[in-house]
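Note to self: the last two entries modelled the partners one at a time, which told us nothing about the interface. This time every component goes in together.
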Amino acid sequence: MSDARPTTPHGVLSWIGQLLLYGLFALAIGVFSNWPPYHPLGADQALLKLSVSHVGKPVGECRKLSQAELDKLPPNMRFPEQCPRERAPLTMSVELDGVSVLDRVAPPTGLSKDGAASIYERLVIPAGSHHLEVRLNDDVRAGAPTYTRSADVTLAPGQVLVVDFDPTQGGITLQ
Amino acid sequence: MSAGQHTFAFRQQGLSAWRALERGFDAAFGAGLNPLRQLGAIGFLATWLLLASGVLLYIVYDTSVEGAYQSVAALDHWPLASGRVLRGVHRYATDVLVVVIVLHIVREWLHAHERGVRRFHWLTGVPLVVFAAISAVGGFWLAWDRLGRYSALASAEWLDALPLLGVPFARNFLVLDAVSDRLFSLFIFIHIGVSLLLLFGLWFHIQRLTRAAVWPSRALALGVSVLLLVLALALPVRSQAPTASLAEPLALDWFVLWLHPLAETSTRGLAWALVAGSLALLLLAPFLPQPPRPAVAVVDADNCSGCERCFADCPYAAITMVPHPSLRGGHRLAQVDPDLCVACGICAGACPSSTPFRGIEHLVSGIDMPQLPVDALRSRLRQDVAATNATHPLVVFTCDHGASASIAADEDTSVLGLMCAGQLPPSFIEYALRDGAAGVLVATCREGGCEFRLGQRWTAERLTGQREPRLRARMPRERLALVQAGPGDERVLAAAVQGLRERVRTLPTPSPAKPGPPHHV
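The predicted structure of the combined assembly is written out below.
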């Protein structure tokens, strides 16, 4: 019985062919596993990250319960104050060199709107000196204070400036 | 032209190009070692290498913020470059796996293997793409170098584009101080846990396959392993020192981390749309309008001896053996699962009752294909041989999925098409010669290129006496030619037919027993 195979390789040519194809595959793998280098930012750019996650103030005033109202409650639920569960949305505005770059209202999360409100924004800006104005409000009640932070920052190329909010550290933070 | 017709034309063009590429690789590797026909097996090899190197890497890995980077970077200083080899093989095997997965999907789609019975394999393969991608990206985070931190943050920002979490996930990676050791438990779960899911999914993926190729041929496995070793030594994978600045360029692995630049240079929504759209296409492809499924194999209980040859040869595990309804002691019967049968006919070729020498007017096999039963094949063979006036008539059995015999056919040639070469019971060759054929040629697809996985292999083994049903030893082998001629190999087939034609002319003229009643065994 003859057994014909169309392209049964043999000899030097086969070895050269295999080496060539293995080499090309290795070259493709080797090159594209490292190259071309990726520049997340341009040579004259910096990154401003606005990242806030915060539970706002209750949307209404707390109310003191009367003794009669307390008596109607089970003993384990007799808290002297009753506060609304819903939290205020987070209002944040950012100006860079006098130009508004962010103006956002983030609603609280949760079915009862009692969770944290979050804002996360990634802004590519030119490196160099800038004047930054950040205002943040977490209280919808009349006369409630607004957190503000005004700062002159100088950002090197590739530098990342994170704007966050931490009431324990005085409010708006720049890192 | 409808969208369906456009897709069909596009697929046909792509298939032609792919086959041309495969033939080109055949010229160097040979059909049996052609990596383009063993993509799944190479993917398995890459997975085994990842598993082995990953276990070793995990032993030395420090799952802490301070130690993670140091433990991985220290691999560069291991003696005899062993650490570089370990890390390099792990990284480059990932890249090979990604490339192989993409090529595997393309090849299977071009061959329309998302349809019919193979829908199962297609659909179980889609989650594997997701698992492989998640695990691969998660691996970069573990190194916790500059690239790892960038990838972790970019991945988190991409995830945050979906309103899934109340607090943005990316806040975990904004500043280095915010990261705790516990984060690495999550990384470990993502990289190793999802890898285990991948392994589990692979097990599902190869269910319903007989003799699934989970290891490529030895030479190919050696070639790929050496390739990875050379890459690991020539282009060692090194950690980039962590820094908060993004000023320095990143040595991005574009096979794995391509999504990050895409999301950053376009929008995260677009990146999500691309990923979700691609997955949706993969998942929907098997449910698009398809041609009707061919009739499946049918078992005839009266003629099934329960020999289990069809059970052993079915490439898609569509046959099980059940107790014979006659309830004769120990007698079993083949049973075809129509949901698994791909209608290749390999079972009919394996059945001992498919022999054309049986002395019955209407040949009924124990298992047969309704669209081309062995009785019809025998009738056609007898008619063709009887009708020819050639002094040295030839019979050519071809596969419907292989090379067309149109340019090989001549007045002395009778061409009988089969659903797969494996559908041919070897006894048909002897039968053809007894009925007056001077020579018989059996054309299979190229090695590894069988549309039904194992048809070429079983045919070759049956004709060379390595597998039941064997071609009888007394059959004059000089009158038989076996040729591998896949689609596009028409010239190869024509040359083989011509070679057989010239050879049989030099042989003594056989005394033909013109077809009359079927021969009795």
